[in-house]
Amino acid sequence: MKKLLLLTLAIIITVSHNSLSQDVHESNFMIMRCATKLATVKTFSQDPGMFELGVRSTASLFGDAGNHGLGAGGQFRIRFHRQIGSEWFADYIVTDIDGVGKREDVHIGWSVMFYPFKSESRRFSPYLLAGHCFDYTKVTPYGVPALHNFKSERWSSAIQMGVGTHFNLNQWSDISLSVQYMTHLGNDIHTEIVEENGLRYLTISDHSHGASLEGHLLATMSFNVKIGRLWIGK
Amino acid sequence: MLVHSLFNVSAQDDFQLSSGILRAQGAFAMGRLTESKATQIYIKGDLSYYLDSKVSVRADGFYFVDSQDKTNKPFDFSHSLFTGMSYHLGDGGAFDPYVGLQPGINFARLGSLVTTLPISPNVTSWSPVLSGHVGFNYYAPKIFHLFVHMQYIQGRFVNQLNTQSLSEFRISFGLGWNIDVVK
Question: Which of A4, A45, B52, B56 is the most buried (most CB within 10 A)?
Answer without folding.
Answer: B56
